[in-house]
Amino acid sequence: MLYAGIDAGSRTVKVVFLNARGKAILAQGLVDQGVHQEALARHLFDRLLREKKLDQSRIRKVVATGYGRNQIGFAHATVTEITCQAAGVRFRRPRARTIVDIGGQDSKFIQLDADGSVRDFAMNDRCAAGTGRFLEVTAGRLGMDLSALGEVAQTSRDPARISSMCVVFAETEIVGLLAAGVKPSDIAAGVQRSIAQRIAGMAGRNIAGSVCFTGGVALVPGMVQVLESALKVPVRVVPDPQLTGALGAALLARTGR
Fold first, then answer.
1. Of 8, 57, 64, 117, which alpha carbon lies 20 to 30 A from 85's?
2. Are 103 and 212 members of one domain?
3. Which domain holds residue 196?
């Protein structure tokens, strides 16, 4: 039997297939999000089955999660991304007790009990200033690709102070900094630090055990270091950090939860 998880996120759609025992990932992949979420998910789902020569008739259950989970009509069930992130991270890092997940449109701070269940969480989904969207806006204003932003930020010796609490006003602030002659590297570093400080504000003093970093922003160079500085604890990036939600959904499909 096979079990599948689909994470219909705000920026990408992810799919993970697990074997019957839930111990081996048979296939995984992602595509950019779009208007027709179910069609994108179905296309990726079918493509992975073909590429890995997996028999669709062996699929026992499909669980969807993420921003667009209710749009995935061929899923058998839906589960919140908080629960799926917890399951996916614990599969990768069994001793994890804290999760920082920063995606395209929201960020989450999740605390786990010793058994891996969610004890508490905080979520920022009302302002893009603490998410990957802020990095995208910054990269656009600085005239560079998002992939280069982190590398440029690491050359900074004097990160700019970004004080605006809203990404719209922050973008105006960035324009002002550029006009004042502030280096792009210092602006990029300032934005990274601003995002990390927002996460630290969500966390407060409630940081316990091993801290794991997930989401697309975990792949941006330098973000781990600024997050460690803001939280004042070591932070580890989970393998395939964009796929932990889909992985968790597949694991929950197997356990029937």
1. 57
2. yes
3. 95-237
